[in-house]
Structures are given as structure tokens and as C-alpha cells.
Design goal:
By secondary structure, this protein is an alpha+beta fold. About 35% of the residues lie in helices and about 15% in strands. It contains five helices and five strands. The strands form two sheets. A three-stranded antiparallel β-sheet has the order 1-2-3. It comes from Hahella chejuensis (strain KCTC 2396). GO terms for molecular function: DNA binding; transposase activity. InterPro entries: Transposase_11.
């Protein structure tokens, strides 16, 4: 019979996996849902080797604010990139009462696939990830426990909302 070794504990907990773009180093993928202006609404983490579409349901369920009930006239839209171009992602979006807008594999972005501000819709999510990466503890993951890392991400998202509300309050 063998007992556990005295080596260092594994870093990252359960939600790490080999990063396919970084020589197989362990990494974490963040799946983020934002509103039209880039404010974070929901967030989940998983290993870096998990496909995006497998995190869609968990991301939609992680929304922390009460979502307005969708009506027939005003259904909510969900813009997704090419990683979600499959039937399962469309089913998840339909189950959560969203109208999915998915970039198809092999197609270029159409001019109509832009936010009313003129920016591409995907850019809004990338900008929010840029805001979150300003926090060094989030850019380089130091936490061994998944719950600690997720808590720091959620705290940073709350801080983004606080700063936004502070700026909007100052304009009045």
C-alpha cells in the first residue's frame, strides 16, 4: 500500500488543464458574459483545454443579477463567436430564451454584425477581459484553490461595476 507523497500540492485545483497554445502548460479558461457596454454579468472558470461551447450553459446560469423576463416583442440577444457554431450551443441559447447570433465558421463578420456604437460585438468582451487583466492577481494566477481564484474574479467584476456607477453618478 502506498500513501500520498510529500511533494508540493498541485497548483490550480481541479479547474486547470493543458493550454493548447502555450506548450501544454497548465492554465485556466475564463468564460464571461457581458452586457452591451461591457459590464460583466456572469463568469465561470474551467481548464484551458475545455471547449468554449461546453461552458455556455454554466456561464448563462452564473448571472448574478435578476434578468428581466423576456417577452415576445423584446427578446434578448446573445452574440457568440465561432467557437459556439454548433447545435448544442443554439439549443442552450434557446432554452435560456435568447436569440443567438453566432458567427459561422468560414464566414467573415458582416457589417450588420456590429454594436450600435459601431464597434464589433466581440470587441466588448475582449475589452472587459482587458479591464480584468489590469489586476495582477488575475492576469497571473497565484491561487491554488479554484474558489479563491473565482472569488477574486467576481470581486474584480464587482469593482468594475462600482467604478462605472461612480462615473455615471459624477456626470449628473
Amino acid at each position: 500500500m502506498r500513501t500520498a507523497g510529500w511533494g508540493k500540492p498541485a497548483l490550480g485545483g481541479e479547474n486547470v488543464g493543458p493550454n493548447p497554445t502555450d506548450r501544454g502548460k497548465k492554465g485556466t479558461k475564463k468564460s464571461l458574459l457581458v452586457e452591451a457596454e461591457g459590464g460583466p454579468l456572469g463568469l465561470v472558470i474551467a481548464g484551458a483545454n475545455v471547449n468554449d461551447h461546453k461552458l455556455l450553459e454554466a456561464t448563462l446560469e452564473s448571472i448574478v443579477v435578476e434578468r428581466p423576463a423576456p417577452t415576445v416583442e423584446a427578446r434578448q440577444h446573445l452574440c457568440l463567436d465561432k467557437g459556439y457554431d454548433n447545435v448544442a450551443s443554439e439549443d442552450v441559447a434557446a432554452r435560456h430564451d435568447y436569440i443567438p447570433h453566432i458567427c459561422r465558421i468560414g464566414e467573415e463578420a458582416q457589417p450588420a454584425d456590429r454594436h450600435p456604437s459601431g464597434k464589433p460585438r466581440r470587441w466588448v468582451v475582449e475589452r472587459t477581459f482587458g479591464w480584468l487583466s489590469k489586476c495582477r492577481a488575475l492576469l497571473i494566477r497565484y491561487d491554488k484553490k479554484d474558489s479563491n481564484y473565482l472569488g477574486l474574479l467576481q470581486l474584480a467584476c464587482g469593482l468594475l461595476w462600482f467604478r462605472r456607477m461612480w462615473r455615471l453618478q459624477g456626470r449628473q
